[in-house]
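Predict structure. Chain length: 284.
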Amino acid sequence: DVYKRQVALISQPAGPRAGRYGRDMQILNSILGAVFGAIMLPFRNWPTLGLILISAVVSVGILLIFKQVSNQERIEGVKRKIHAALFEIRLFNDDLGAIVRSQLDILRHNLSYLRLQLFPLLFILPPVILIMAQLQPYYGYSGLEVGEPVMLRVEVRSPDGGETEFLLDDKPSIELALPTGLELDSAGVWIPSKGEMIWRLVATEPGDYELEVQTAGGSFTKSVRATDQTVRRSPMRVSSVSDQFLYPAEKPLSKSDPIRSITVTYPEDPEVLLMPRWMWIFFI
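Prediction complete.
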């Protein structure tokens, strides 16, 4: 009864604008996924080489965009003023007042120089962020190791379709259908406060798998990859538009589905100074 009410409530349309944004994001992710899939195919066994080459190409693209949209004449003018102030310091190195004035001029011109960089950033940052979002599924996670258990989380929508917490007796009827090569390492555990059902899985042999989550409202698949190669991994299958941007590797769930997300806890790339290691390589 709980799930009949749930499906009836959340099957109502979320609105034309939200639906359009979701479709647009799905189409964009599909196109970019195909492009990056073709680019990354030769580098499955040489991930660092692939990342360096992609970074180099992106750098050239950034320079070309910057050249086209920046005011090169004003930038050159500001550079000349900074150089002139530096020469003044050399020429009048025995005049403390002149040195201070020149240093203040350098500071002022540097602020002008930085201001002239802001407008090109409006054209540079969006494509760079999109590229990084597409690289994250390849470099942000490691494949499952054979014999190493991982968590599978299925988050379901609350009975009213909102953020209302479940009661202990609201445990949903969810079953798993696992392919050969994946096995359950523990029975499912229901966490009402989070609306999550959690299992522990283990891969018994390398491969690409697709498990199935079966509910009263339908069946939903989730990809699982147990390989050392650099391939496109999907830690979460999500439903919201913002989450589709962060997790673009798999077709999103619908807003009308009784499941909000399906998560496989892949090992993540270690962080170095607040960023994943692969991002440092990319930026450097």
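Summary: Residues 96-139 form the longest helix (44 residues).
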